[in-house]
Amino acid sequence: IQKGLLFLKPSDGAIKPQDFMETLLQKLKDSLATALVHFYLLSGRLSTSVTDDASSYSVFVDCNNSSGAGFIHAKSDLSVGDIVGSKYVPLVVQSFFDHHNEVTELVDGVFVGLSMNHSIGDGVSFWHFFNSLSEIFSSQETIDNNIKLFCLKNPPILRQVSTGSVYSLPFSESPKSNPQFQTQVLQERMLHFSSEAVRSLKSKANQESGTTTMISSLQSLTAFIWRSITRARKLQSDQETTCRFVADSRPRMVPPLPMNYFGVYISLVKTTAKVGNLLENEFGWAALKLHQGVVEHTDKKISSDMEQWLKSPSNNRFFDTNVVHMGSSPWFNKYGSEFGMGKAVAVRSGYGNKVDGKVSAYPGREGGGSIDLEVCLLP
């Protein structure tokens, strides 16, 4: 996961730019050190343990033999306008992310980016850490800079949830056993949907579905983008197309998990249709199919999918063709982290997990139910 916030530098002239950056960087470093005490897994490194007969191995987080989380300060001669004013997201944004924490200083702005291995945490956990980092940063103004005394309002729960036996991955030293995926050259564009547009799509979806079921705003918007991308791809009517949601499993589990449970507790909601059916039926038809998939995504369904995967493990599902993959969430608190610079100008992401048809949903900056979509497609 690679996400970050773009800020404008303070322009009141009360502090010199150099002094501002030095103060900001030091406070961020101090805040990061404290945040990692609470989220100690993020200071570790993934490591493997091969079985005695060398037939399989397990993966674990090694917090003892680790150099810790990195902190990088970089400079760029770009401006905030160069980033947000471009028709397509500039490729240079991908350089704002390393495998740790990177602060990129622009001519008139600052980009604060974080990178986290997705096998360690999901989007809920990522933004929990990001917002906790901001909370610690802000606390330095109120507790005489002694952040060692600081207690998080919503600390992470790091206890493991038992899902049965530990799965051992097949091991082979042959490079052919490790599939390699070629990086696709994609174009990224940010699409903004005002709160009025989102409400209109939701109303239309519920009217056309012909049921009393309440289709959500995100399901309606996802149906709209699924149909739009499928139409743009000019596929044959008898071909299949798939739309996938990333769903948070915490509230679906029995018993449900608290939202501050740190880790990967997500699962895929998969809806498939013939291209002809998707485009020839009304918009509400697609929205209802997505809604039904979400309703049926229960604890029992999640457990069944996991058992099936363990019987036949594969990591190729993310790279299927004719797929629209809706990730992230407009309900994450992405504009709540300010780091003393006011509300961020925009949210941007790095190169990780981007394929043709990947869509990420962000809250609109103005709030009120507005949504921004980051859409990645082949040229």
UniProtKB/TrEMBL annotation:
Spell out the PANTHER family in the cross-references.
BNAC02G01430D PROTEIN (PTHR31896:SF51), FAMILY REGULATORY PROTEIN, PUTATIVE (AFU_ORTHOLOGUE AFUA_3G14730)-RELATED (PTHR31896)
Q: What is this protein called?
A: Acetyltransferase
Which domain of life does the UniProt lineage start with? Eukaryota
Source species of the chain = Brassica campestris
Q: InterPro entries, from UniProt?
A: CAT-like_dom_sf (IPR023213), Sec_Metabolite_Acyltrans (IPR051283)
Can the keyword Transferase be found in this entry's annotation?
A: yes
> Is Transferase a UniProt keyword of this protein?
yes
Molecular function terms from GO: transferase activity
The protein's matches in Pfam families, at most eight in alphabetical order, are given as: Transferase (PF02458)
What keywords are annotated for this sequence in UniProt? Transferase
